[in-house]
Amino acid sequence: MKALCAFAAFVVMTGTVNASCLQYGHTISLTGTITMRKAEVIGHPSGGRPYAVLTLDNPICVSGSDEETENDVTVVSLGGGKRTWPHRATVIGKLFHAQSIWQRTPVLMQIIQIKKQQ
């Protein structure tokens, strides 16, 4: 009985922590600075392939399955959208977890809209 109560308390506490995290696949908005980075790719003529990132104003946590939960995320790779960077912006999109070695940050965002800030 004590073990069951301890397990129930663990489940409730874990649910509370993850409830404060953003969820993969939901449309959300994040604010920060968009810049370009260059991924080092062996054999690429220019030495690497550029990709856009959003450096967040405040760290976030994103949860999914246990192995996909990411805490203290400060940089998110961006997919889609115009290449008019660097600038401050609020980006609206859907978060997803990296699935391959070609995705350079653990958390990525598929862009729906970029709202440039002054």
* CATH-defined architecture: Beta Barrel
CATH class: Mainly Beta
Low-confidence parts, pLDDT < 50 over ≥5 residues? 1-17
* CATH-defined fold name: OB fold (Dihydrolipoamide Acetyltransferase, E2P)
Terminal Cα span? 59 Å
Radius of gyration: 17 Å
Task: Tell me the helix content.
Answer: 10-25%
Largest sheet: 5 strands, mixed, barrel
Quote the average pLDDT.
78
Supply the helix-strand structural class: alpha/beta
β-sheet strand percentage: over 45%
Q: Given the structure, what is the number of helices?
A: 1
Number of strands: 6
Total of domains? 1
Overall morphology: globular
- What is the N-to-C succession of helices and strands? HEEEEEE
Strand order of the largest sheet: 2-3-4-6-5
Salient structural properties:
OB fold (Dihydrolipoamide Acetyltransferase, E2P), alpha/beta, disordered N terminus, five-stranded mixed β-barrel, single chain, 118 residues
Outline the secondary-structure elements.
Blueprint: H1 2-19, E1 22-23, E2 27-40, E3 48-63, E4 70-79, E5 87-97, E6 107-116
Parallel strand pairs: 1-3, 4-6
Antiparallel strand pairs: 2-3, 2-5, 3-4, 5-6
Textual characterization of the structure:
The chain is α/β, with parallel strands linked by helices and 118 residues long. The chain has a single domain (22-116), classed as OB fold (Dihydrolipoamide Acetyltransferase, E2P) (Beta Barrel), CATH 2.40.50. 15% of the residues lie in helices and 53% in strands. It has one helix at 2-19; strands spanning 22-23, 27-40, 48-63, 70-79, 87-97, 107-116. A 5-stranded mixed barrel has the order 2-3-4-6-5. A hairpin with a 7-residue loop joins β2 (27-40) and β3 (48-63). The model is unreliable at 1-17 (pLDDT under 50).
